[in-house]
Amino acid sequence: MKYIYLLLTIFGVTLLWSIINPKEGFTCFLEIIPAIIGLVILALTFKKFRFTNFTYTLILIHCIILFIGGHYTYAEVPFFDYIKEIFHQSRNNYDKVGHFAQGFVPAMIIRELFIRKKVIANQSFFNFIIVSICLAISAAYEWIEWFVSIATGDGGDAFLGTQGYVWDTQSDMLFATIGAIVALLLFSKVQDKELIKM
């Protein structure tokens, strides 16, 4: 439990930092609300289903990515402005980090749920189904961004974060797909070890 309290403390401190003088208040709210909803869900289900510390750590990292994007907006994260200048990029690409994590972290969450709840009997399709679910989550998030942008006009532009890039939606989903595949390739065995410890 000490480790969980440490993760919650880091979550609380970074959340507090993100909401103090954010670049745009409305965008900050839109970016951090998934993390807050996630925390509530995890808290409500903690006694019935406790994830491994490994999975909780990945969830925290994803939340921190959201908090940074919320504080600065995804198009204006300072370090990625610096990267943009060094590599002569046409845009601030911090949002691609967010979308990579949007595939990476859910892949590990879904994988742990599938293994522990014995959701899939035929292991041949295991990774394919996980990646497909992550892509579906990414597509659904793109719909949310689109609806918010239509509903709020200029207020939703920073949330949408296209920065004039016509293929932003497609590349966001690609990065989420890559994130899910990378997670499964690199961290399945690490997660298996954590599951054995449980």
Overview of this structure, please?
The protein is an all-alpha fold. The chain is built from 8 helices and no strands. The protein has helices at 2-19, 25-45, 53-72, 78-86, 94-117, 126-152, 157-160, 168-197. Helix 3 packs antiparallel against helix 5 (94-117), helix 5 (94-117) packs across helix 6 and helix 6 crosses helix 8 (168-197). It is globular. The relative contact order is 0.13.
Record keyword descriptors for this entry.
8 helices; 198 residues; mainly alpha; 0% strand; single chain
What does the largest sheet look like?
A: none
Overall residue-averaged pLDDT value = 90
**Class by SSE composition:** mainly alpha
Low-confidence stretches: none
Figure out the total of helices: 8
Helix and strand string, N-terminal first?
Answer: HHHHHHHH
Distance between the termini: 13 Å
Tell me, what's the shape?
globular
Radius of gyration, rounded? 17 Å
The total beta strand count reads 0
Helix content: over 70%
Strand content: under 5%
